[in-house]
Specification:
Length: 339
């Protein structure tokens, strides 16, 4: 992909309007300048990415978007609110409805069509959480918000209940934002103290191997013994550090694309004992498909043991006969907890 024959400065106000028409709620613009690599490289060197090996790949592209789009001049940072309700659920809020990747890709495609119709000489590269693009960094540079002590990107409008994406352009715009010069956390450490596994190992530094989101979603091997007791009421993802954050006390209800599905209303016991047919009815099209049938039931078994749910004994005893070794191991641990 080459740059336009004549470099045209695009109107930021018009681009912002197109992005909002496509469904993005927050839009900002940052110059496509290289990202200093110290924070990422130090985090990787410390092993805080656990076995998320893809984080250590394509580092040059993560730090310099011109390697993704030659001639890149602008990064459009995009955010959408996903909060819907405070109804209790063993599923993290972002995962209770349609997979946000699909929603953000739909909106990215709509934005791309509009851009190409109005500015046909401009090339772009879109990222929806699956490319080597550091969306949080670009959202900060574009003035959409800040990263708080729990490592979450947090906005004035929606708190940290947002999902991010970015679009890179090989043309400049007429107005770039500045990163917000503020630290909304101050001396507050509520999220650090509330984390049940002490995964926030330093200010804005998360050890993925200790985080319940990693353990319930990404880890398909043995869950460490010291982490299992923290699984209480947690089957997929974790919102604890966001739930306690004072900056999230006035959430805004999101649109229907993020509306929770029936899966979010299921109890931990139900998820532990769900059949393959129920999994096939509830899970496809949601983020929970990432954990898989065995992974979700394993997580639910751990959660039942962690919460000392004695009424779940029949479900756990049945899981001892499951063909999945992961599920059997979790059920065995849970039953020992009940004893």
């Amino acid at each position: 992909m080459g740059g336009p024959e004549e470099l045209v400065t695009l109107p930021a106000a018009r681009l912002s309007a197109l992005a909002k028409s496509a469904g993005f709620e927050l839009v900002g613009f940052a110059k496509a300048e290289p990202i200093p690599g110290e924070a990422l490289l130090d985090w990787l060197a410390a092993g805080h990415h656990a076995d998320l090996d893809w984080m250590a790949q394509r580092v040059d592209e993560r730090l310099d978007v011109t390697r993704l789009l030659p001639g890149a001049r602008t990064v459009i940072a995009l955010a959408c609110n996903y909060w819907h309700s405070d109804e209790p659920s063993p599923v993290a809020r972002y995962a209770r409805g349609r997979d946000y990747h699909a929603t953000m890709r739909d909106r990215m495609r709509a934005l791309r069509r509009s851009l190409r119709a109005e500015f046909p000489g401009v090339n772009d590269y879109g990222s929806v959480d699956a490319s080597p693009v550091m969306e949080k960094v670009w959202a900060v540079r574009a003035g959409l918000g800040t990263v708080t002590k729990n490592g979450c990107f947090t906005t004035h409008e929606f708190g940290s209940w947002v999902v991010l994406s970015a679009m890179i352009l090989d043309a400049p715009v007429d107005a770039y934002a500045q990163a917000l010069d503020e630290d909304p956390c101050g001396r507050c450490r509520i999220c650090i103290d509330a984390c049940p596994t002490s995964a926030i190992v330093a200010d804005r530094v998360i050890d993925a191997g200790l985080c319940l989101s990693y353990q319930t979603i990404e880890n398909d091997e043995l869950v460490p013994e010291n982490v299992r007791p923290a699984f209480q009421e947690t089957v997929f993802g974790c919102d604890i550090c966001q739930d306690v954050c004072p900056l999230n006390m006035t959430p805004v209800k999101a649109g229907t694309r993020f509306e929770p599905r029936s899966l979010a209303a299921q109890s931990v016991r139900t998820l532990a004992g769900m059949t393959r047919a129920e999994f096939d009815a509830w899970v496809p099209g949601t983020p929970l498909s990432r954990a898989g049938y065995d992974g979700l039931r394993r997580n639910a078994a751990f959660a039942l043991g962690a919460s000392h749910d004695h009424g779940a004994r029949p479900v756990l005893e049945k899981l001892l006969l499951d063909p999945s070794e992961r599920v059997v191991e979790a059920a065995r641990w849970a039953l020992k907890r009940l004893e």
